[in-house]
Amino acid sequence: MNDAASFNPYTDAQAEFDRLAELMGLDAPTRELLRNPAHEHRLTLPVRLDDGTVEVFHGFRVQHNDARGPAWGGVRFHPQETIDTVRALAMWTTWKTAVVDLPLGGSMGGVVCDPHRLSTAEIERICRAWIRRVARTIGPQRDVPAPDMMTSAQHMTWMLDEYETLHSNHIPGAITGKTLGAGGSLGRLEAAAAGLVKFLQLLPGLTASEYGRLARFRDPARLELIRKGLRLAGLPE
Predict the structure, then answer these.
(1) What is the rounded average pLDDT of the residues 38-67?
(2) Residues 209 and 157 in one domain
(3) Which domain holds residue 19?
């Protein structure tokens, strides 16, 4: 069997945790608690397409842990999205926020769809449908969605609009990564790019292929590299 086809990111994430838990001497109940999500939501999203037909998309929201504060994590749109990928990323987000001492937990969400084959209006309908399914389980004090793979500030703005409509209130803290007009933060992409450049400085042998995977940070990161007088060989144009 092909190794890539058989790879399961959630199994890998749990194995990583098990090794560290052994080194830390965590007791069995704590291990069982932290190696599994606190909540999982599987979503069916009926969406009317531009041609008038209705397609049912499948989505997820996994809330791994909220012991340190509200869960936080992205929403991914990808034709090969899986519940195990979302589980793994939610777990890794828990560790990520804890390592930098942020008062947040970890979550992740996604929809199985190919944005390249959908119109802007269809993508907006998917965003709103996803929010309608999770609206009771997210919020500023519970779980805050953010952009991730093939989602952007515009997606988050549609989601926030739907969330506020459902709750009949202005709640900008319910979604992060919004457009500036909807209450988003100045410099969000640039900050991520600056972090990427710092990472590249620590790994001088890193090739452009690794950098190229972070497509949504390319332009801000390129500007940051120029500002620092650095150049990454083979940087994609």
Answers:
(1) 98
(2) no
(3) 1-36
